[in-house]
Amino acid sequence: MKLKLIYLFVVFIPFLGIAQPTSKPVQEDFAPLNLDYPGLEKVKSLVAKKKYDQAANALLSYYKKRSDIRHPEYNMEDKGRFFGKKLSKDNQEKADKGLEHQFYVHKGYGFFDYGKDINWQHWPVKDNEVRWQLHRMYWWTPMGLAYWSTGDEKYAKEWVDQYIDWVKKNPKGLSKDNDRFAWRPLETSHRLQEQTALFNMFVTSPYFTPEFLMVFLNNYAKHADHILHNYSEKGNHLLFEAQRIIYAGAFFPELKDAPVWRKSGIDVLNTEIKKQIYDDGLQFELSPNYHTAAANIFLKALTMAQLAGVDKEFPASYKNTIESMILAQVNYSFPDYTHPMFGDAWNNDKKNSVRNFKDWAKVFPDNKIIAYYATEGKKGETPTYLSKGLTTGGFYTFRNSWKDTATVMVLKASPPAFWHSQPDNGTFELWVKGRNFMPDAGVFVYGGDEEIMKLRNWYRQTKIHKTLTLNNADMEICDAKLIRWQTSDNLDILVYKNPSYKNLDHIRTVLFVDQKYFVILDKAEGDATGNVGIHFQLAENCDPIYNTTDNSISTRYADGNNLFIRNFNAGQATFAQEEGKVSYSYRKEVERPAFVFEQNKASGNAVTFATVLYPFHGNVAPQIEYKEEAGNDPQNGFIHFTIVIDGKTHTVKQQL
Ligand code: CA
Asked: What is the structure's pLDDT at 83?
């Protein structure tokens, strides 16, 4: 025995230069494999002869030569193409710090040190996402790319070591706490997907030994099996898990359960696309970033299934629904590709959006609208309509153009949604000529301990949205019922009712007049009593001037692209400034102007507000007066009011 150990030490290590703590393959290591899979004949016969070392060796040779299974992005032959190609600074840093166990776990925090002997339970900031996302190993793909780019085996060696270290230290069932983070299905599915690419990146390295292959495949099969039995109940997590189990089943068809994984993932997505996507194309979480993510998940699954030749299991309606999701996004986006930060959304970046549209254009080459956005307007066409309501999901867009000079308001008045949405019905963003005057506050942070939840909950409050509150409390019911949505060349109208509180309904009417300005009429009705307020928030850099005697505010941008807001309940409604903040990206926030018009509501009496939002050009705000005229009844389609702009009187009288 001693002799054998010395022999191993002397021969094994100097020749291969590896000291992996993996054990020799045994029979049960082959249990997850379908040894009748075409190409595995040699492996099968060696296993039958109990020559497990040689069988693992043959299996590795098979994988190194395998060419009929394609990865959508990274295939073995790409190695040469990446050689000498410089990594982005970000990726290089993630890869190199990853070698030192300084792991990039979350974009909001950057790098944390996990110790020489990696502590996978380390929790440096008590934000749940930090602990979860560690188990997505965001630095591994950069390490793979660094390996391809430099050919330096140190990346492969370290990756193999970290992989084995993770497997050893995070067995399922280690503890309830560890399972909660390391084996949350979302993270497990993330690893399933990423490891298809990592497999292709590292499989040709001498550090990717036959013994390691067996560790890898067994761990991988365990992952897919975990998803199969632990799908999240609903929402985007379930979608990610289903899409990624399709990856597993398509990329490793040699594994016994691969057909089961594929079928399960396809079944889930088929069911979910019908359940999660409203007939207007909106995803039911009603948060724009998650909408895009969901569209991409559905498409990714289809693409991977195509690469494995099983895409026929998806019906045609599946593809049509994805197309309607893309068009919904077009509808609620501003001309600069940004979109409202409703719910748990953050500012999206144009480069990313264009890349998405380019990918989508490949799947929908005949769609001229998608082509327009994919080519930044060089080809294709804009939609033929302007204002449009997505009336099931409740995103209403008032628009006078698709160009950069447009005025666009997107308002949310929706059915109940889930975790990623907020109690904010009635809120909106207003974008004029390239400027978002009234961004939503965003999300700032996800879940975590008490301290983190406090930060998160500030951003969820109803009163920090552009809508109506009773005693500044959060809306109890977020379930808007559409009363009227009608568009025409010179007047668009939205009327909806939200049963915001017990005994208090909020009825909001928005008129987009002459494709130029907005009149917002709010009514709070019901038996509730107390302080009723309508809230507004502006962008952080607008340098507003307040006129508290006539309830007006004007922005003062030096370029002259400005907005004037005036409430016409002076004498009844009082004006007050409020705490305002906006977060465009995770854990970054900035103060901004916010204000409220308030009235006291006695039992039984309805309280109403009339507010005009008037975009203008120049440095002096217009003088505006508004007066409701006889018979004005927007709910029933009769509009009648007078507006005076810098002394010029216009009467708007229209039966819609
Ligand atoms: Ca919000």
From this structure: 95
Share of the chain above pLDDT 90, in %: 84
Residue 33 lies in a domain: no
Dihedral angle sign, alpha carbons of residues 585, 589, 593, 598? positive
Q: Helix, strand, coil: what percent of the chain each, to 5?
A: 40, 25, 40
Helices (H) and strands (E) in the chain, counts: 19, 24
End-to-end CA distance of the chain: 94
Which pLDDT value is given to residue 419? 78
pLDDT digits (tens, 9 = 90+) for 62-88: 999 998 888 988 999 899 999 999 999
Do 503 and 565 touch, CB atoms closer than 8 A? Answer: no
Ligand 1 center to 468 CA (angstroms): 14
Helix (H) or strand (E) segment spanning residue 259: helix 258-276
Query: Is residue 604 in some structural domain?
Result: yes
Residue of 436, 458, 464 whose CA lies nearest to 578: 464
pLDDT at 21: 55
210-229 and 52-65 are packed helices; what angle lies between their axes, rounded to 10 degrees? 80
Are the beta carbons of 573 and 520 closer than 8 angstroms?
A: no
Secondary structure letter of residue 233 according to DSSP? S
Query: Is 4 a residue whose pLDDT tops 50?
Result: no
* Identity at 611, one-letter amino acid code: T
DSSP string, 582-613: EEEETTEEEE--EEEEEEEE-TT--EEEEEEE
559-597 pLDDT tens trace: 999 999 999 998 899 999 999 999 998 889 999 999 999
382-436: pLDDT as tens digits:
999 999 999 999 999 999 999 999 999 999 999 999 878 899 999 999 999 999 9
Mean pLDDT for 356-379 is: 95
CA-wise closest residue to 497 among 472, 473, 522: 522
**Number of folded domains that form the chain:** 1
Give residue 464 CA to ligand 1 midpoint distance, Å.
8
Active site includes 290? Answer: yes
Residue 3 pLDDT > 60, yes or no?
no
Q: What mean pLDDT comes out for the span 88-108?
A: 96
> Is there a domain that residue 514 lies in?
yes
Residue 533 to residue 471: CA distance in whole angstroms = 8
Domain carrying residue 563: 388-619
Catalytic residue among 63, 220, 278, 290: 290
Give the residue among 388, 387, 477 at the shortest CA–CA distance from 424.
477
Question: Could you please report the per-residue DSSP string of 168-227?
Answer: HH--TTS-HHHHHHHT-HHHHHHHHHHHHHHHHHHTTSTTS-HHHHHHHHHHHHHHHHHH
Residue of 394, 390, 368 whose CA lies nearest to 379:
368
Distance 487 CA to ligand 1 centre (A): 26
pLDDT exceeds cutoff 80 at 473: yes
What is the Å distance from ligand 1's center to 442 Cα?
Answer: 5
208, part of any domain: no
Tell me, in angstroms, the distance from the centre of ligand 1 to residue 565's CA.
21
Sheet holding 491-501, edge to edge: 481-486, 491-501, 504-513, 517-525, 607-617, 561-567, 552-554, 545-547
| 3-state SS class at 370 | helix
Q: Identify the CATH number of the domain in which residue 541 sits.
A: 2.70.98.70
| 1 pLDDT higher than 60 | no
